[in-house]
Amino acid sequence: MPTLEHNGKAFTVDEDGFLTTGMEEWNTDWVEYVKGVEGISDLTDEHWKVINTLQEYYKKNGIAPMVRILSKTTGFPLKRIYELFPSGPGKGACKMAGLPKPTGCV
C-alpha cells in the first residue's frame, strides 16, 4: 500500500487515496491534507457536521450512508454537500472523515 506524508505524519492509503486503516489513523493532520487536495480554504461548522455524521453512521453501520440519508441526517440538501465537498460526498467527504472508499452510491 502506498503511503503519503503530511505535516510529518505518514498515512497508509489505497490507490484512490483513502486511508486503509480507516478512522484508526484519522486525525486533524489527515483532515488538513484532504482539505488541501479538495481545494477547500476553510473548514466550517457545516463541514464538521458532515464529517461527524459520516463517522457516527459508519461506526454504527460499518458502511457510509447513502446520500439521501446523509442529506436527511445533516439537514443539508445534496447541492450544499457538493458545495462543501467539491468532489462529492463519496470521494471528498468520506475521504476527509477517514472512511474507506465507498462501494455503493454514496
Short description:
This protein has 106 residues and is mostly helical.
Commentary on this structure:
Helix content is 50%, strand content 8%. The mean pLDDT is 91. 27% of the residues are buried. It has helices spanning 28-38, 45-61, 67-74, 78-84, 88-97, and strands at residues 3-6, 9-12. By secondary structure, it is mainly alpha-helical. α1 runs antiparallel to α5 and α2 packs across α5. It is built from five helices and two strands; from the N terminus they run ββααααα.
Summarize this structure as a short list of keywords or feature phrases.
Arc Repressor Mutant, subunit A; two-stranded antiparallel ribbon; 106 residues; mainly alpha; 5 helices
Helix content: 40-55%
> Could you name the CATH class?
Mainly Alpha
Distance between the first and last residues' Cα: 24 Å
Biggest sheet: strands side by side, in what order?
A: 1-2
**Can you tell me the number of structural domains?**
1
Sequence-ordered SSE layout with sheet pairings:
Layout: E1 3-6, E2 9-12, H1 28-38, H2 45-61, H3 67-74, H4 78-84, H5 88-97
Antiparallel strand pairs: 1-2
Helix pairs in contact: 1-5, 2-5
